[in-house]
Amino acid sequence: MTHDPPLMPLPTLPEIEAAERLIRPHVRETPVYRWPLLEAGLGVEVWIKHENHTPVGAFKIRGGLVYLDELKRREPGTPGVIAATTGNHGQSIAYSAREHGLRAVIVVPHGNNPEKNAAMRSLGAELVEHGREFQEALEFSRELATREGLHPVPSFHPWLVRGVATYGLELFRAVPDLDAVFVPIGLGSGFCGLAAAREALGLKTELVGVVSARAPAYALSFRQGEIIEQPSETRVAEGVACKTPDPGAFAHIRRHARGIETVDDAGALAAVGELLRATHNLAEGAGALAWAALKAQAEEWRGRRVACILSGGNASTALMREVMVG
């Protein structure tokens, strides 16, 4: 077993509240609702935190706004930024760069969700397609950053976590006495933001991470107690298509997670359909993972109050066609 890296400090309550004030002109507090059709026969009080209700359809915009605000103040001469993504991080950075008048270059793997690509272009980003999966796009983005003098925005960073933590603050203040929250894990900012809010408020709520069974790097790492690389092969939940866990995120996940559950592509696809029918909300594959995992474990949580993070709603037309046929 490897030694844990030094823990990155989680943002404090004053820091999260300052981030909340910063993002509020752009992102209203997202709703958290109970849906009777989801709860029917489950025996669990279920709250859905709708991060699909942001200007980019996902929670990541919160971190992007905070990151670029910090960057502009610390490095005012920055000409532009670059990021690698499968979509939601890229939309976040594209939106935030536009607000700050910065050039944004976004690198995506070939075959990426076409609607997410179109959304990033509509926000003014220059889109570059490279590689077969996220890791190859990330490595190329680093080369391009050096070549063109752009600031590389990572997918996990303390500034991103500070912004993302605002959704946790909203959730915990809106729904008191939660027994647990199920949250998807891509590279880890969503989980760490939730952990930061929980710690800042001094709560005992258990946090359950969820990954795709076809992108199990974090689940394997959690079980082994050390970082394990594993290629991502999910075709449904590209938002959590992580091959290599981030050491800083992993250290917090090991400390704060009750566990990490896995959901296969068929389960994620079924969960997208269930959320659509029961709530009339569109969840992308990654955004439906938390609900899928809770439903699979419903007996364990019977009689308790649990929240699920619907982390994004940017499903492709092709995915929705498959959901509707199913």
Brief summary:
With 326 residues, this protein is α/β, with parallel strands linked by helices.
Strand content: 15-25%
Q: Which regions are unreliable across 5 or more consecutive residues at pLDDT < 50?
A: none
Task: Give the CATH class of the largest domain.
Answer: Alpha Beta
In which range does the helix fraction lie?
40-55%
Q: Radius of gyration, rounded?
A: 18 Å
Please give a structural write-up.
By secondary structure, the protein is an alpha/beta fold. It contains 13 helices and ten strands. It has two domains: 214 residues, Rossmann fold, CATH 3.40.50.1100; 92 residues, Rossmann fold, CATH 3.40.50. 54% of the residues are buried. Helix 8 links the parallel strand 7 and strand 8. Helix content is 45%, strand content 15%. The strands form two sheets. A six-stranded mixed beta sheet has the order 1-2-10-7-8-9, sandwiched between helices. It has a four-stranded parallel beta sheet with strand order 5-4-3-6, with helices on both faces. Helix 4 packs parallel to helix 5.
Features:
alpha/beta; six-stranded mixed sheet; 15% strand; 326 residues; 45% helix; Rossmann fold; globular; 13 helices; 2 domains
Secondary-structure blueprint of this entry?
Elements: H1 13-23, E1 32-33, H2 36-39, E2 45-50, H3 61-74, E3 80-84, H4 88-100, E4 103-108, H5 114-122, E5 126-129, H6 134-148, E6 151-152, H7 158-174, E7 180-184, H8 189-201, E8 206-212, H9 217-224, H10 247-256, E9 257-263, H11 265-279, H12 289-296, E10 305-310, H13 317-325
Parallel strand pairs: 2-10, 3-4, 3-6, 4-5, 7-8, 7-10, 8-9
Antiparallel strand pairs: 1-2
Helix pairs in contact: 1-7, 3-4, 3-7, 4-5, 7-8, 8-10, 11-13
